[in-house]
Amino acid sequence: MSNTTPATGAPATSRKDLQSAQVDGHGKTTIDDGVVAKVAGIAAREAHGVYDLGGGAARALGAIRNALNATDQGQGISVEVGEKQVAVDVTIVADYPVALQDVADGVRADVIRAIETIVGLEVTEVNVTVNDVHLPSDDKNEEKDEKEEARVQ
Asked: Are 89 and 77 in contact (CB under 8 A)?
């Protein structure tokens, strides 16, 4: 097998090289998948009714990152990026008592708007998974645990 494309004789590029690459008369722009995930993550976090992103393990790692001031904006986001299109999977923790379908719809709209505006790719789908609901009482229990730990040193 040759390392050239049959139609043009130009050097073949791997599938990864083709992802999110836009070529015009002045050069090629390549946007890394991680950048697309970060843009989607920022948009999803800003959606009404979203408490956090990611599953349990991702949130645990996120808490460690936050303690180190190294927040992962792509946490809870998975993207599949092509040349002109992107599909996104978002895992969220919703605030209680916000209507979950409204939260998912808001996340979907915000992610689509951000990616199409900032990245310039067409979004084919945004799948939203709500894997937990955050209760306001959870914050009170955390504060209570912190006070108890502070007393015993």
From this structure: yes
Coil, strand or helix at 2? coil
Tokens of 97: 């008592």
Beta bridge pairs of residue 4:
11
Whole-model pTM? 0.71
Q: What angle (nearest 5°) sits at the alpha carbon of residue 129, between those of residues 38 and 46?
A: 45
Question: Which residues of the chain fall below pLDDT 50?
Answer: 1-18
Tokens of 17: 């090289």
- Using an 8 Å Cβ cutoff, are 109 and 44 in contact? no
User: Could you read off the pLDDT of 101-142 as tens digits, one per residue?
Assistant: 999 999 999 999 999 999 999 999 999 999 999 998 877 666
Residue 45, pLDDT score: 95
Q: Residue 31 contacts by C-beta under 8 Å, 6 or more apart in sequence? A: 20, 21, 81, 119, 121
8 A C-beta contact, residue 135 and residue 93 = no
Compute the distance between CA of residue 112 and CA of residue 107 in angstroms, rounded to an integer.
8
Instruction: Indicate the SS3 state at residue 24.
Output: strand
The pLDDT assigned to 55 comes to 81
